[in-house]
Amino acid sequence: MPQPPVPRESRVRAGIVPPYLLLRIAAAEEHYDVAADAARRSLLRDEPMRELRVEGAHPGLLPHEHTRSATTGRDHDVEAEGEGAPVDAAVPEPAPDRRISDAQGAESLPGHLVRTEGQPATGDVAVDQAYDGLGEVWALFERVYGRDAIDGEGAPLEATVHFGDHYDNAFWDGERMVFGDGDGEVFRGFTQSISVIGHELAHGVTEMTARLRYRDQSGALNEHVSDVFGALTEQYAMGQDAEAATWLIGEGIFTELVQGRALRSMLEPGTAYDDDVLGRDPQPAHFRDYIVTDADNGGVHLNSGIPNRAFALAAVELGGFAWEHVGRIWYDALTGGTLRPNDGFAVFAAATLAAARERYGDVSREVAAVANGWRAVGVEPE
């Protein structure tokens, strides 16, 4: 069964845009009148974030049998059945339950419900992008990993769009995904990126499973897991293999005024943007460059680049579709019940290696690729 809900006062507002980037924008008022003001107000809204301090982990789901959908052609998982087990045709197929609300520029949640599952497109771009994006995230988790929604039991997928006045972020608040429209100078609307939508929903999955504390190394892992499943959602939706994938998080949310491709690059941390005003992407790509700081909840958005690169390197080494191999390993590690809220990189690396051995065998390409990925970024599994 899923973990009991986290009390609202203990929930983390896990935003996709790091505070260090908002601070740079806030200080750039001579270049961006609207964006600087929007960034300052966004920082004030995000300041009351609380740390997640919940102990324990959900044991997760059992391994699933690998099958291919006859209707979509995509890979997905079904519960392994005993030989000759009868199939109950009356059991309905899992389906998403999407509920999109509109905050109409206010900061109160959830806003006005404007589109529910099965309803036609509204014509509001943000509403319809959120609806479609949630469908893609649900498809990845259900068809590949056998997880029906965030809690694994078909809970509604709730999202609110048009949050705040020029709000420069998107976040998971413990119940729903919330998307701002951006300021129009630096950021476009945050529903434009499937990787952002997948990133935010994955925070909910982490909250229901390993509950990685949102600070220091465990917080960087929390952000890393969301980046992983954000990237995999985009790759799955677009049918991209590991070589064709961009490995970018938030591609398309910068306007043409910014010299940058995205918020983060998983394959090449530190290269996502290099802008005369906003500066250069500060993410480290190796553990020797780990940033010790009190800001950004102990550098959760900064240091997530280290495990991000380990994952991407393992996926590229294996080739093919990343969600089929390294994605399965990371999902097994996240939901396997061995992680604790304060675990760091070395413990998580060991969990992924154990998951790879369990699924693919001690002597396998998958185990070697995962080990090589962690070795390349200087993390020694504990």
UniProtKB/TrEMBL annotation:
Pfam hit, one: Peptidase_M4_C
Enzyme nomenclature, EC number: 3.4.24.-
UniProt keyword Metal-binding, yes or no: yes
A cellular-component GO term for this protein: extracellular region
Subcellular location: Secreted
Catalytic residues in the record: 200, 301 (proton donor)
InterPro entries xref list: Metalloprotease_M4, Peptidase_M4, Peptidase_M4/M1_CTD_sf, Peptidase_M4_C_domain, Peptidase_M4_domain
GO BP annotations, alphabetical order: proteolysis
Signal peptide: none
Record's function text: Extracellular zinc metalloprotease.
Family to which the UniProt record says this protein belongs: Belongs to the peptidase M4 family.
Protein's name in the database: Neutral metalloproteinase
Species whose genome carries this gene: Agromyces kandeliae
